[in-house]
Design brief:
The chain has three helices and two strands, in the order αααββ. Strands 1-2 form a two-stranded antiparallel ribbon. The protein has 81 residues and is mainly α. Helix 1 runs parallel beside helix 2. Strand 1 and strand 2 form a beta hairpin.
Amino acid sequence: MPSTIDKPNEYASWKKCKDMILSRILNSLTQDIPDSVIFLVTAQEVWEDLRDCFSQNNTPHIFQIERDIACLAQDQMTVTA
């Protein structure tokens, strides 16, 4: 008869924490994020999918964002003022 391995006492706490992290990641996503992440099971899978999706080199877009940040102002004052 094959032996079974008992789950450690910490397993329930670990699973609860893992599920909470997955839920927080999924709930923080905007609706324009690919629906593919909904079908992933673990937070690690979701995180890696998002990393792969958004880590593609998009130099013109990055330049535009950095320029927009540098030009931020409120009324006639710069952000640093």
